[in-house]
Amino acid sequence: MISMIKEFRIRTTKSREVVDITNRVSECIKGVKEGICMVYVPHATAGLIINEFEPNIASDFVAFFEKLVPKAGWKHNVIDDNAEAHLKSGLVGPHALMPVSEGRLVLGTWQRIILCDFDGPRDRRVVVMVR
Fold first, then answer.
1. What are the tens digits of pLDDT across the range 62-76?
2. Which of 1, 10, 23, 29 is the most exposed place for a label (fewest CB within 10 A)?
């Protein structure tokens, strides 16, 4: 079975931001007919979700995460003042997994792969593995 790993970077511009990376991931799987695609962000303050992506839901996700895990009296904040970013990342998780069929990612009609940056702006690395 053939495996391949590719990488790309996304530069976020806000402290809390969600970015649709579906097209970039699709570019990484070109040439693969069938398989499983794993997308992974090797960061402690970022995560990935699969969901609908349009401007209103994008801002809703940011607001939701802020309400769910507010910047508060977290113990880690005495070290580098970003405990809530770590907690959000832990809830969301660093990876997404989906099938590849007939050379395309198998996603629902409105589903997109979304990078969630909880501690930006930063240069985020995205790893795509297909097997």
1. 999 999 999 888 999
2. 1
